[in-house]
User: What shape does this take?
Amino acid sequence: MAIVVLLLVVVLSRIPSGYNMLLPSTALSVEPKIYVAGHPVVSGRGQLLMTFVEERHASLLENIFGRLDPDASFDPLPPNYDEQQNVHVNNLMMLSSEQTAELVALCYVRYKELCAGGVQVQKIEPYSKVGSLLKPGDLIVAVNGVAIATGDQLRSTLQHYTPGTQLTLSLQRGKATLAVKNVPTVRAPQSPYGTAFGIAIADAPLMAIPAHLPIDMKINAGDIGGPSAGLMFTLGVLNRLSSTDLTHGYTISGTGTISLDGSVGAIGGVKQKVIGAEWAGAKIFFVPYDGGNYNDAKKVVGPNMQLVGVHNLQDALSFLHKLR
Assistant: This one.
């Protein structure tokens, strides 16, 4: 009987289940991963920790018995899953996260032009009234003097006005910078029926990371992939550039992607990241509201760590400024 059980265990351990098994891994300091010329690591400060998840393809045995582990989660692998391609994509996402964090931190302290962003006009819709004023390819960078970095920002800004209001747009058209006045808005013909220009838009891509940043810096996460350390990398660079300790001596962990406009996006494995932060002794954990991450984190956070939900970088910084 024992031999039969042993053979069954061996067989089940070799058969893939088609699921990814997610397990916590202790959080790591971002300090050793950040270089900023002229701003070395300052001793005596608190810590900023990045979180990540240990992932592996679960065998049938792990899929059966791993579900008894309250810290584990299982995600089905997509059809035609290619592990090599997945690793490559995660490495690219981490590189983009590192570079975006560098730019956002520099934009915050001084160099706004690095994160100018903008929204590109893709198409003028038939119901629009801007046909004589805007052209496909125009880059909208401000509405009535309010800087616009993303499509979400543009849509949100327009909701402050009633349909029919005429607005002034700052545009980039080719190499020219234009101020286009009296641009009429309309009521969108489909849900949520808000104020719109009647144009199809897309976030302007960051055409190229500048060859030389105003301050020489480099983030290198090593062999950790994915975009979820963006917020913590940004805070790490800002703390390095700051003359005072943004952490006020606390050990602070967190997760969340970072975008050029400073918005913090949803991530996967939030349960495991909260647990990993607690293992590392973090007292505060930043988590995105986006994608239900905050609600998921609330279900597992322990009494010794404060959960702080954030929509953007400014939310995190405002919390840090109030720490004592």
